[in-house]
Amino acid sequence: MSNYHIKHLEEYYQVYRKSVRNPEAFWEEIAEEHFVWRKRWDNVLNWDFKKPEIKWFEGAKLNITENCLDRHLPTRGEKTAIIFEPNNTDEEALHITYRQLHERVCRMANVLLDHGVKKGDRVCIYLPMIPELSVALLACARIGAIHSVVFAGFSSHALSTRINDSDCKIVLTSDGSFRGNKSIDLKGIVDKALEACPGVANVLVVKRTGSDITMVPGRDKWLQPLLDEAYADCVAEIMDAEDPLFILYTSGSTGTPKGMVHTTAGYMVYTAYTFKNVFQYKENDVYWCTADIGWITGHSYIVYGPLANGATTLMFEGVPSYPDFGRFWDVVQKHKVNQFYTAPTAIRALAKENLEYVEKYDLSSLKVLGSVGEPINEEAWHWYNNNVGKKNSPIVDTWWQTETGGIMITPIPYVTPTTPTYATLPFIGIQPALMDENAKEIKGNQVEGRLCVKFPWPSIARTIWGNHDRYRDTYFSAYENMYFTGDGALRDAVGYYRITGRVDDVIIVSGHNLGTAPIEDAINEHPAVAESAIVGFPHDVKGNALYGYVILKETGESRDRDNLRKEINQQITEHVGPIAKLDKIQFVSGLPKTRSGKIMRRILRKIASNDTSNLGDTSTLLNPEVVQEIMENSL
Length: 635
Ligand code: PRX
Known about the structure:
acetate-CoA ligase activity; ATP-binding
């Protein structure tokens, strides 16, 4: 068990040094001791950030579900793998044991096989947070199919773009989903999406809400009867270490969403190892991550990382405000949750409500609190620490990305002393670097720059589906021999990192990564709109909210502005999803542009944030007069 479970700070430094001095030897030891392989690797690491090409454990053969399920059966067969806490409090929670989960995964895998899904095929999963979602991921992995989960809050347009980009032939969905006191017509969204996806042959539907839906004959089938008939065991497909495990889309600063491709062995090793250490998970602990499996946090730290450790992982279908603002704490008390992992936006929303919602519940089971997705501000950190952790549970502010697959910069609880708003130290094996404007590395402490990583770690995404050039351009071209994260960071006097936010045009709203381009495209499709630009501005719950600057066509000038605002947000809801709606929309006669025609978002960001005392250099603007007008009418 050497090095697998770090228990004090000196040990962290020792293991860290070892992991960067000889990464191959370090990861080889972890891989050897803690996982089951069908065949050992020939080579631990092969990498070249120029091409870029990264291969971990080349030559090894395995199936990740044998690591997440089969190997636990002799010792943990009757242990709960998944606790399912439904949206509605009158519905009972489910406890699914490892043995039951294994059976459910095998049945679903057989149903997929029966529908012609083969190794390497892509399967689109558009499901709410119900057990079938976890089962679907694992069922794909069982047979070597590549899952592409699309968050079930995305619109039909966003869904069809993703289905077509990775050429999925089959979609798993449900009739609907429960979210608080609402139910959402997921199947209707899928039907609309599929009008633009001629390649989809089958839709398998989970019955969840019992709502009235249309089933297209020949294409759509209810899943449950197929599962009931399917054989309860399924031989695991033997995969190569570098075979793709899944595609997960993330926003870019420009263009279409990027289908990040994660492969099998490295992803498994890194998510399992980080899970064990970052949450100090011990056998019989109950671990709860509130993310949706539609995001990377759910993939790595609801499904794969916990299950690879034989942990009990809780899936919550609902929302923090239903039936009231005490729901999270009610669930913690009810299931005696030991590790709780959530997003700053949820903490800020709950901190606005009456403290009684927290104080009412017994939270003494909690040992570790986690935060992810965006910077956690000091106020939210203290509220979390005082009222949830009772100053007794360390907070792990974990910085990472869809692209990194696993947690990169984080305290280790009970090991690393924490400082509010600091993600603190690089995790084992991670070699961060801060870069200046001249693409030179900034050494030493008390410095600030652009955050890069110098050396590959096992779970780095290997490519963008169908577009390796974009992968290189986005992540490996800004700085030579470095992975560029898109974030800014500072390193303080003791070497702790604090993430300062995105340095590109990605905006993080309520922890969701939104690119400006698809939102602007959606707005521009409105018949009255000529052009638009989106920026983020600070918001006390969402972290950032969206501010849109819109130029109308002449034909739109006579239209009622409030109606236009509603229509524009409707347009965004249809094209991207409700999470991308604008909080403020200002109609303008022009947008500040450079001589080369690029919108100067820096100026728009400052105006939207009410920070106009120093707009910086505007000398390169083609149309400086428009800035005054925008400032005068700012909302
Ligand atoms: O800007 C950083 C922010 O979220 C971005 C990654 O978003 P996504 O790929 O959706 O993954 C989110 C969940 C891993 C990062 O580039 N971010 C994530 N965690 C933190 C953070 N910013 C500050 N502190 C964090 N702990």
